Amino acid sequence: MIPERSLEVLRAIVNDYIESNEPVGSKSLVERHQFGVSAATIRNDMALLEDEKLIHAPHTSAGRVPTDKGYRLFVDQLQQVKPLSSAEKTVFENFLSDSADLDETLSRAVRSLSQLTNQVAIVQYPSLGKAKVATVELIAVADTRLLLILVTDSARVQQHVIELGQLVDLEFVTELKSRLSAMLVGQPLTSVSDRLSGFIQGFQLDKGVQVQLVVDALLDQVDSSRQEKILLAGTANLARREADFAGSLLPVLEAIDEQVVLLKLLAEMQDDANGVAVRIGTENSVAGLSGATILASGYENQGSEIAKVGLLGPTRMNYSQNISAVRAVARYLTRALSNQ
Amino acid sequence: MIPERSLEVLRAIVNDYIESNEPVGSKSLVERHQFGVSAATIRNDMALLEDEKLIHAPHTSAGRVPTDKGYRLFVDQLQQVKPLSSAEKTVFENFLSDSADLDETLSRAVRSLSQLTNQVAIVQYPSLGKAKVATVELIAVADTRLLLILVTDSARVQQHVIELGQLVDLEFVTELKSRLSAMLVGQPLTSVSDRLSGFIQGFQLDKGVQVQLVVDALLDQVDSSRQEKILLAGTANLARREADFAGSLLPVLEAIDEQVVLLKLLAEMQDDANGVAVRIGTENSVAGLSGATILASGYENQGSEIAKVGLLGPTRMNYSQNISAVRAVARYLTRALSNQ
DNA sequence: ATTGGCACTCAAAGGGCAAGACTGCTAAGT
DNA sequence: ACTTAGCAGTCTTGCCCTTTGAGTGCCAAT
Fold it and tell me: Does this model's pTM top 0.85?
């Protein structure tokens, strides 16, 4: 077991290091904090922390720097999440103030979060996992083309243009639409695929091709992988902290370019007691992100999580502030969506 | 007037510098090219080019580097745009192969362009400037909420949820919808605002509030600023070329974060004889992009330009290849859209 | 107009040196 | 058993100096 004072020393090291970006030494620790013991004693504690791999010296005669493990302990036990300042709250009130559609809300959220934290903010579009079909529309938009519109009860709309390859039969389209509506409206998206199997058999053979085209388009829209989409903001903040990324932003930017990677990562993360999931440095499996920390928190609609909001920055980040910012944005998003 | 051979020397300097990233000296020039004259003669030519501010020496005893003005002359007169290799062509054939909706097409285009050039690719969403209203739908999605759907003849769909604040009167909604349709379908988006002025007067007073809400939502959707949207890909390529950006990516990433800046920039650029617009270094007004070159080319639908596709990279880039890649993507996009 | 030759300039790289920051250890004190 | 002062030892950082080499600019000769 690590004695109380040693933990205090770790806390102090993390805080000082986050602030100063300098390896912190025993002398500056006793100057800046009231431990009531001498630098030599602190050095003993530091030796202990080093044995535990919680801190690490870049070289023999340098101060100490927290390891990923050290940050982890800090996040789990030593920090207190600080509430937002009133100035910060106004930022969020603002982005919620006027009613806006989903795109607008998410885009404001991601921008606010990035500005507030000076990190890269990530917002995932709500999954349609539990959504239900609200409306299916088929509209002729040209002689041989149909526009398929699928509206969900979470007010998302998806569309697809279908090239029929033959003239649109308006009467037939109307019939097709009402049959589809009857079969799908009110049903969860996840069940659409099952429900449509065999659908084609209810039609005359000569219409089969057209029906199949429409059904395929519908299935494609419902396919969950199409829903996965994220918004990013504040990439420039990475450049401001370049030194924290071992001098090269390349792997981090690569991970960000590959949104699939981020989506996978977000999906893996489970909120902890604070309502925020934290992956520190090498804890996250993506090689390029070994110098980065990712925070994530789920936001909800109708009581169940529908997507994540997250933050990406160097492991040397202000955990208290950022954790509370991510949590706040998740809450505000939950609220904003419930108003729709 | 600059003599022919001096221009050849400039061409050689640009090509060598692009390839090697080293200031190029007179000796290496005569070694790598067949000028038929000695290094001393080349030095005279270089002195001339320097007088014309076409090249510049980083320091007294270094080789020469093209200035922005030098690149400009190169682009305008000295390069020949090289056609795509067949491998490159297949990349584009691929992204066009299977029919896909607009989002998918643009997203593939931007990714292909960035992979092909190793630069940051930019694709602007088609403007709705000349688009016409194809369908207006009003759908009740909850007791007090309407979903407004606006479809254009370019098959773009926009939606907005309207909170009425009172129970939806289905009959009234149907009437409202048919009146809106009668008034707007087939009309250009730009005229919607005019056509709707006074629209509210055709309704009973007690419905006025609801009508106004719907009209406002519609006007908001039609507002041109909402259409402006871009896709980016390949940001990591900036980090690969970090040295070319005077060591700091910060201003470039900031410009990219501020998509408004990019949109404004793209709007300013007019295609030249090659069908591609080129802004080199300080030619573009954005301060942060003084080390960057932007290429842009318009893509069309029904014969008129609807948006731009572009490329952003260091001024030290392979102009021939990149110009032809941008042009190719613009053409492919034009083709892809005509298939919809 | 071109060329060989040469003096000159300057950045980059490397070595050596001093300063400074910290640690780790030891021996003594509480 | 814990704490502390003191000190030797280590290693980075910054600085200055020198050397090296690439490249120029100019001049006089062709």
Answer: yes
